[in-house]
Amino acid sequence: xxxxxxxxxxxxxxxxxxxxxxxxxxxxxxxxxxxxxxxxxxxxxxxxxxxxxxxxxxxxxxxxxxxxxxxxxxxxxxxxxxxxxxxxxxxxxxxxxxxxxxxxxxxxxxxxxxxxxxxxxxxxxxxxxxxxxxxxxxxxxxxxxxxxxxxxxxxxxxxxxxxxxxxxxxxxxxxxxxxxxxxxxxxxxxxxxxxxxxxxxxxxxxxxxxxxxxxxxxxxxxxxxxxxxxxxxxxxxxxxxxxxxxxxxxxxxxxxxxxxxxxxxxxxxxxxxxxxxxxxxxxxxxxxxxxx
Length: 292
Known about the structure:
Blueprint: H1 6-16, H2 20-29, H3 34-52, E1 59-69, E2 72-82, H4 85-88, H5 91-107, H6 112-116, E3 119-120, E4 123-124, H7 125-136, E5 141-150, E6 153-159, E7 163-170, H8 175-186, H9 198-214, H10 219-237, E8 243-244, E9 247-251, H11 252-258, E10 262-270, H12 282-291
Helix pairs in contact: 1-2, 1-3, 2-3, 3-7, 9-10
């Protein structure tokens, strides 16, 4: 059997960042051939990645990237998920998210499948993602992304990697960041009333109607109560009607007029939004492990 010395194990670990014992096993199996050992580790890490793929990934980071390309403003939001907040703080995971946002900006993939097939270092995005899963030991998935290309200005705000906002606007450059921060804080459903879906309005009207009827007021009063509730709802969920967080004496719309500016579009992402998270009883899991 080929003798595997510590320096060879160290070299393989530095090249792959795989666990020390995994590197040693791969070198023994490859009889000291470091290139072959790399291939063995890739297969093994890929196997771990396959097992991790079945586990729910609801933590993660929002990546943001903005740039100017051919006189067009480009903005990207991407959500990449992992299983725990601990991994979301891992430098390899953070770098992966940042690089994915740049790839989306530069290559403009049509969808997730197209993104996964784009080049990442010497492989594809999906191959690198799978290797990262093996290295970190958690499921990692690119959940969604959106790319804006605009002749207007684009500003962004990233709140600790958990909430990301892109804003497409015209006018005073100083308001871009303020708008993005405001949206991150208040999470409006739309810019104005025209962006609120009929479904949302119908739900809100149904709730308001039930409350008004239960009040026991006369019919004419009930109708006014319903209308008042709908207007209150619209004021709360439409961006331009909200009180501006930096100056609650004016609405966002008043601020925009004062700055001779307007907003054309915004995108809001929050990590894990819409993912049904599984409640885990860790004490029960540990007890079950001890009983086996």
